[in-house]
Amino acid sequence: MVQGEESSWRMAASTHHERAIPLNQALAYGVQAHASASVAATPPASFLDFQPAAAAAAYFGELEEALIHGAANAAGVVDPGMIRGGDVHTKSAATAGYLAARPPTLEIFPSWPTRQQQQLHSGNSQSVGSTTDSSSAQNTMPQMELVSPASIRASSEQQQQPQPGQEVMMVTTDDYSYKPGLAAASPSFQQHQLQQQPLHGGGDHDKRKLGSTRKEGKLVDAKTERRLAQNREAARKSRLRKKAYVQNLETSRVRLQQIEQELQRARSQGLLLGGCSAAGDTSSGAAVFDMEYARWLDDDSKRLTELRGGLQAHLLDTNLGLIVEECMQHYDELFQLKASLARSDVFHLLTGTWATPAERCFLWMGGFRPSDLLKILIQQLDPLTEQQMLGIYNLQQSSEQAEEALGQGLQQLHQSLADTVAAGTLNNDGPGVPNYMSLMAIALDKLANLESFYQQADNLRQQTLHQLHRILTTRQAARCFLSIGEYYRRLRALSNLWSSRPCESFIGTESVSPPGTELQTMHHQPQQNQYSGF
Amino acid sequence: MQYGAAAAEQAWTAYMPMPAMAAAAETAAERVERVASESAVVVFSVSSCCMCHAVKRLFCGLGVSPAVHELDLDPCGRDIERALSHLVGGGAAPVVPVVFIGGKLVGAMDRVMAAHINGSLVPLLKEAGALWL
Predict the structure, then answer these.
(1) What angle do CA A442, A284, A521 make, to 5 degrees?
(2) For B65-85, what is each residue's pLDDT tens digit?
(3) Basic and acidic residues bias: where (chain A) (predicted)?
């Protein structure tokens, strides 16, 4: 059995990649063992979580961290009973249990110094099955520390020689037998070698390039090895700390956004009650609008779900038509909302502060550009009858003409406003210029025209949607509203991804979780930051 | 006296060729109607108004040359504006631009845009003879 394990181990040693496979098997084996031993511990899960896929070094590094987690999770779940038994299953369970029981800080990889190996060699025949000593954990600790420098040195070499490794393996197997607590694990040692339980003395051996590989014939200074091991452990600890810190930052940021939103809502409500002072940068009307808009977005997503369900269920046109009508009314409500804000604070709408960044890219006079939306929808609405095609083409053309006209009018407004503000000499400061106040009054009047332009643009958008609804059949209209909703949902999601993308350079290949957490926050955020380009 | 006054008035109107004086008898509303039926497309505007500029550009883009009446250049502009606001509904502060096609009132800018979007503007223009395609 030992021979067979040796050979498998050697095979694993030949290449990094191959090593992974037996390790997987060993892990699975260990998991099975756990299951059979009916130990309710987390280590199996932690083993599986960290199936290696990367280069061996990174792989082992991650394993170490994983094992630390596993150990931390399972701390205190030491089950001496796990160690009992003579069959391999129990032994692997015992090994796993030992791994779980190990305190996380002991990340030193015990290796087998040559001298100790020789000692162990003599003790080869020692009891492989006697693993009833539950205090072995403590006993093995000092032993592991002794051997760790050697093993660490060996692992740092990262040079596996099957021959010396094999030799070492045998020695390490024997070594295991020396440790009463781990003796039971020695037969299963080779299976778990690659599992590389850092807490497990023998496991570290194998983990470190299939046991304690070391320079051929050279004895490594124990002190140096220990120093290197400590360095490695310190590095590992700092990596873990960094990961934890980054995760903390991410969650704090999400929480901060939530709190800011709540604060804004509370402030606007306070303003409504007339209690608090005006909000900092947003006017009261704008704050109310933002609140209402968020509610509109929630309703919108519900209606989209209704539409989708109606389309998939192949509802009758009458029923589907009702849903489509509701959608149309919902959009009209939004236009109403915007119109009421335009009277008091048109700049909030024109600058698009209520929209997400990606939507703001496409902002045209405070909302979507009808001809752009039609271009997108035309591709989604096939098949169309000829008459419908003609109708949509005409609609597109007339909206383009209307947009052009409004754009030209706005351009003239800009020019006129610029001329007014720049009237007279610009060399003097404000009050020094003659007719400053009348100049300002004229400019104010011209600025007020912006509101009418915004109203006309919104009117154009509303009319376009209504006309589209008239041209299309019920099912087509349902698909059309669905497309519009989905398009803007994607833009919002894009904005969320953009705002939560990692900018820091140190978040690289080391940790796996940050991208995952970002995706998770992205999924959560669409419910909170729903701003569309309408 | 009356004769003298009438004669004075006649002499006055003969002296002053401005149609505004001759139309002093007609009300502003009648004036509006009269002017509106003089051309196929009539736009009442104010020269400094940018929205009027937009509607003019819209018609030019369609290939229509509307007859534009600048109210700020008309002595009776105020009255006409008042009459127009009655016609249109007088909600928004700037009444102009107001568009008549074929003598019939279309409305303010939003009505014109809505008519264009739902495709009713071009047939109206063709009917009035402002468009030939």
Answers:
(1) 120
(2) 999 999 999 888 888 888 888
(3) 202-222
